[in-house]
Each structure stands twice: as structure tokens, then as C-alpha cells.
Design brief:
six-stranded mixed sheet; seven-stranded mixed sheet; Four Helix Bundle (Hemerythrin (Met), subunit A); Gyrase A, domain 2; 456 residues; 3 domains; 17% strand; Rossmann fold
Length: 456
């Protein structure tokens, strides 16, 4: 529920820096600035969206900091309310002192995401746009930030609104025939009404299917390097990263735990995981590493199953292969610069294969392309065109809308009353409304905004 209190919070993360920003929003934001700000221009006389130089004074009229202040008057502000930002020096103590000044003046500490929640409640953005704010802040690649910016700009919202408008037109037609006799509104053209509904269902399915790409952009792709000891897993990890991150020795079982690092490939944030070599062992520490490797193999988005091309396949290779799912596994044949002894014909269930030399860098570009291609099989999405959904709840809402439309078509075949058809259309509209926030329950809203940082 919208609060009429004036809230305050740091808008920049804690730490040392050149500038720190403290933000206020609410009906008394300018009044509180007037109390603590001393400059050539009073806070009340400041023009909207102009920076003014001055000093902040405490209750004893002692200078706390030299600052720049800006007033953004409603409704032309982030929240739709009067907003004040104070640009102070970026030290932790200075920002805390500035924050304390406004709290002492009467402002209330903002809750997580409360600024964006007020923007949503005041109609400055819909819920899908509000969620894009978090995605933009947390984006770990240029491609992820571009998708978040598109959603913030309303690309997803406009698509959902288009779906809703067409469903509302169909619902209005149905309700007209429910409320009025045929001699007043004419005979219902049910096939003509259902044709666009079927097309809408297909379009929603296409949008829902973009979630795999969107989730990968938002959360990152988990890529596990798996195999028996001493096949070159750690060497591959280091080669992919371009630095010596994993320990590489001739001693089998050097890696005893999972080692995770971040990189970006083809615009996708990647979580690259080097796992312990899979084998039967009596070493308790190594056993735990193998157990963790098994767990990672189940949860990883993609497994790079490494075998040594210069050696015959052994029992430990097949033990590692048992952990792999063929549809999300790439067979990586390492040491391809040496004489090839490995009989890969025995690995018939794993058709995606890349031959590399982690030591000399041979085949790594091809491997990078294979990893990216795993998540860009859709040509439109890989080209960066179209709308991509990044939130699981958006995908779930679309699936509920599609399910309601499927039920509508079943009801038509069963010669159900028009009232039943109208009910299915309302359920589809309700599901779509949860994406933009029109029909989202308050507890879901609270959950969404609680994921934001304080000050945003």
C-alpha cells in the first residue's frame, strides 16, 4: 500500500569513492532539504532538475559536508513524487552523517526497493519494467544489460498489452452475445473469434520459449568441466579464462573441490566450474570432491566432458560419462595435438564433439562457439531481435494464459455455454495482468520488491 511518508536512503553502495548520493522521496522531501541545506538558493526556490551548490548543516549549525543538491519535483521524477538527491563526498562516514541529518529532520528509512515500488504504485512504470531495474543493475554482460534496457523501455510490456487487447476484444464480443439476443448483435462468428485466439496462443508460446535464453542472460550459464583425473580439466579451465586459476600437476586428483570462475562468451555470463576428477578413491577429501562433482553434473546447464585423446578410454572415463546427459553434454577430446589413441567410436551417445589442445590453445574458439550455440539455437533471439523474458514468473504467467486458451478451445469443441468461454478468456487476461502488475497479489509484489537493494 502506498505510504505518504518521506523516505530516505543511500543511492550509492557503501565504500570509498569520489561521490556518494543520498536520495529522498515523498511530500516533505524539499522541506527536509530546506532544514539542513545552506546555499545561495533555498531548497524551496530551487528549480526542478537543476544542481545547486551548498553545505549541509547539523542541528548545531556545524557543517557536515559540502554538497550538490537537486530537486526533482512531482510528477517528473523517478518515483512520481518530489525527489531530492544530495551528492556528497563518497566516504562511508560522510554518507552516514548525511543520512542521519535527514532522519533527524523527520524522514523515514526506506525499505528495500521502496523507491521503485513507489514508481510502480504511482504509475511511472509497470511491474515488468520495475523488475528490469534489478536486472539492469545486476547485469553481468553487455547482452544482458541490453535485454534489461529493452524491458525497462517497455518492449515486454507492450507485447503483453497487445495480447491483452486482443483477448479483451474477443471477451467483449462474447459478453455482448451473452447479454443481448442475436437479433440485436447478430449471429456470433465463433470460428472467426477463435482464429486470432489460436494465433495468440502460438505467439505466447514463442515468447515463453525465450525464457531459456533470458534466464541464461540473467542468471548466467553454469558450465561444468568433468572427466577422470589428469585429462586436462584444469588446463582447460585456465585456457578458457586466459589465466592460471586451477592448479595443474602430473599428480592425479590435484583438484579436490569444485572451483568456480566467471567469464563472458558471446554476450552470455558464464559460470565455469572445474570439478574434481571422477574416480573410485579411498581418500576421504577426494571422495567429497567427487560427490560434489556428481551434484554439479545434475544441476549444470552444460557439461564439458573431457577425455584424453592420447590415451585409451578407461573405466574412469565411463564412470564420468555415466553422470552426463547427452542433450546437455559436449564431448571435449583434449591433447589432440598428440597421436590419437582414444577410440571415440565407443562414445556413440555423445555426438557433439570438439577436438582441442588445452596446452596449445588449439580448438578453443570452436569450443566457445559450441557453448554459445547451445543457448542461441533460435535465430531471432541469437540475432538480438524480438522480446526475451528473463523472469521465471513471467514464463509461468504466460503458460497459465496459454493453458486457459487451450481450455477455451476444448470448451468450444464440447459445445460449452458462452459463459464458460468467457471465463477462460478472463483467466488468460488475469494471468497476463500478473506480468505487468495489473492483477498481481500484494504478497507477490512485496516479494518482488524485497529483492531490490535499499536506495533503489
Amino acid at each position: 500500500m502506498l505510504s505518504f511518508e518521506t523516505i530516505v536512503a543511500p543511492a550509492t553502495p557503501p565504500g570509498e569513492g569520489g561521490v556518494g548520493i543520498v536520495r529522498l522521496s515523498g511530500p516533505r522531501a524539499v522541506d527536509f532539504l530546506e532544514i539542513v541545506f545552506k546555499g545561495k538558493t533555498s531548497a524551496a526556490a530551487m528549480k526542478s532538475h537543476h544542481l545547486y551548490h551548498g553545505h549541509l548543516l547539523n542541528q548545531e549549525r556545524v557543517c557536515v559536508d559540502e554538497v550538490l543538491a537537486v530537486v526533482m519535483r512531482a510528477p517528473r521524477s523517478y518515483t512520481g513524487e518530489d525527489v531530492v538527491e544530495v551528492h556528497c563526498h563518497g566516504g562511508i562516514q560522510i554518507q552516514r552523517s548525511v543520512l542521519d541529518l535527514f532522519l533527524a529532520a523527520g524522514a523515514t528509512m526506506a525499505a528495500s526497493g521502496e523507491f521503485t515500488q513507489r514508481a510502480f504504485l504511482n504509475g511511472r512504470m509497470d511491474l515488468a519494467q520495475a523488475e528490469a531495474v534489478v536486472d539492469l543493475i545486476k547485469a553481468r554482460s553487455e547482452r544482458a544489460s541490453r535485454v534489461a534496457l529493452d524491458q525497462l523501455d517497455g518492449h515486454l510490456s507492450r507485447q503483453v498489452y497487445l495480447f491483452s487487447q486482443q483477448l479483451k476484444a474477443a471477451l467483449a464480443l462474447l459478453e455482448a452475445h451473452i447479454d443481448f439476443p442475436d437479433d440485436e448483435v447478430g449471429t456470433l462468428d465463433l470460428p472467426g473469434l477463435l482464429a486470432p485466439v489460436r494465433e495468440l496462443s502460438l505467439q505466447m508460446s514463442t515468447l515463453a520459449s525465450s525464457f531459456d535464453v533470458g534466464r541464461a542472460l540473467r542468471e548466467g550459464i553454469s558450465v561444468l568441466i568433468l572427466g577422470r583425473p589428469n585429462v586436462g580439466k584444469s588446463s582447460l579451465m585456465n585456457a578458457m579464462l586466459g589465466e592460471s586459476r586451477s592448479i595443474v600437476t602430473e599428480v592425479a586428483g590435484t583438484t579436490r573441490d569444485t572451483l568456480e570462475e566467471q567469464l563472458v562468451l558471446g554476450g552470455f555470463p558464464i559460470r565455469l566450474v572445474d570439478a574434481a576428477g571422477v574416480r573410485e578413491t579411498v581418500d576421504l577429501v577426494e571422495q567429497e570432491g567427487v560427490r560434489r562433482a556428481r551434484e554439479k553434473a545434475l544441476s549444470a546447464d552444460l557439461v564439458l566432458m573431457v577425455v584424453d585423446g592420447s590415451c585409451p578410454l578407461g573405466d574412469e572415463d565411463f564412470l564420468a560419462l555415466e553422470l552426463c546427459q547427452s542433450d546437455k553434454t559436449v564431448l571435449v577430446v583434449n591433447k589432440s595435438d598428440q597421436a590419437q589413441v582414444c577410440d571415440i567410436k565407443l562414445l556413440s551417445g555423445f555426438e557433439r564433439r570438439v577436438f582441442i589442445s588445452a596446452k596449445h590453445g588449439f580448438g578453443l574458439d570452436e569450443l566457445r562457439e559450441v557453448i554459445v550455440d547451445q543457448f542461441t539455437c533460435n535465430e531471432t533471439l541469437s540475432a538480438g531481435e524480438g522480446v526475451v523474458i528473463t523472469e521465471r514468473r513471467h514464463r509461468d504467467a504466460l503458460l497459465r494464459a496459454i493453458s486457459a486458451l487451450d481450455e477455451l478451445l476444448v470448451s468450444v469443441d464440447a459445445l460449452a455455454p458462452l459463459e464458460c468461454l468467457a471465463m477462460e478468456l478472463r483467466e488468460a487476461l488475469s494471468a497476463l495482468g500478473q506480468i505487468t502488475g495489473e492483477t498481481t497479489p500484494d504478497e507477490i509484489l512485496d516479494q518482488i520488491f524485497s529483492q531490490f537493494c535499499i536506495g533503489k
